[in-house]
Design goal:
The complex is a heterodimer of chains A (111) and B (117). Chain A is mostly beta strands and 111 residues long. Helix content of chain A is 0%, strand content 50%. Chain A contains no helices and twelve strands. By secondary structure, chain B is an all-beta fold. Chain B is built from no helices and eleven strands. In chain B, strands 2, 4, 5, 6, 9, 10 and 11 form a seven-stranded mixed β-sheet that branches. Chain B has a four-stranded antiparallel β-sheet with strand order 1-3-8-7, with no helix packed on it. Classes of the chains: A mainly beta (111), B mainly beta (117). Chains A and B meet through strand 6, strand 10 and strand 11 of A and strand 5 and strand 10 of B.
Chain lengths: 111, 117
């Protein structure tokens, strides 16, 4: 079946450090891939998405590239800020109405 | 505010009680989703509505779970005879018309945290 695996957290970084959160997937067909972010006390928000192989999604300094050959969609940011502290979820969607989420990775950024 | 609104934000129930969780989607959004998020896990799909029609309920974990959206706007998720394993955050999301496999953005509410004692 379809599934998403992302690196376990928490990830703790100092401000301005480089961020990578790994995400790999298993899917039949050609899924669309997403990163969602959940700030404390708030609902999930779509951060970025990519709908086909080699697409790069980007938003707010975050990037992720859809790699079909490695079935990966790693999230990166060159310089994190304290305000980036949140839980990040990798997700996929194939045919049908379901979005399948990973378990989430909590990021703490220290000033 | 124009976002997805869920109520109550917190609900404590005794085992065996029935609960009802409400979702007000963004005005005009045709599609509505319910998810269950256990502690430390990602959301898991429960059910999907297009207007008032429940097109997919494959994620509902048992027949104690029931969802409705009678007028195609507000939705209610009802859990009968709650059990401890039902403790989770229940998330609602809405989007513009969602075809199968569509890539429309889902807008999430802040969720209802249900604790069953």
């Amino acid at each position: 079946g379809n599934s998403v695996t992302q690196m376990e957290g928490p990830v703790t970084l100092s401000e301005e450090a480089f961020l990578t959160i790994n995400c790999t997937y298993t899917a039949t067909g050609y899924p669309s891939l997403f990163w969602y972010v959940q700030y404390p006390g708030e609902g999930l928000q779509l951060l970025l998405k990519a709908t086909k192989a080699d697409d790069k999604g980007s938003n707010k300094g975050f990037e992720a590239t859809y790699r079909k050959e490695t079935t990966s969609f790693h999230l990166e940011k060159g310089s994190v800020q304290v305000s980036d502290s949140a839980v990040y979820f990798c997700a996929l969607k194939t045919g049908g109405f379901k979005t399948i989420f990973g378990a989430g990775t909590r990021l703490f950024v220290k000033a | 505010g124009a976002g997805v609104s869920q109520s109550p934000r917190y609900k404590v129930a005794k085992r065996g009680q029935d609960v009802a969780l409400r979702c007000d989607p963004i005005s005009g959004h045709v599609s509505l989703f319910w998810y269950q998020q256990a502690l430390g896990q990602g959301p898991e799909f429960l059910t999907y509505f297009q207007n008032e029609a429940q097109l997919d309920k494959s994620g509902l974990p048992s027949d104690r779970f029931f969802a409705e959206r009678p007028e195609g706007s507000v939705s209610t998720l009802k859990i009968q005879r709650t059990q401890q394993e039902d403790s989770a955050v229940y998330l609602c999301a809405s989007s513009t018309l969602e075809g199968e496999g569509a890539k429309n953005i889902q807008y999430f509410g802040a969720g209802t945290r249900l604790s069953v004692l």
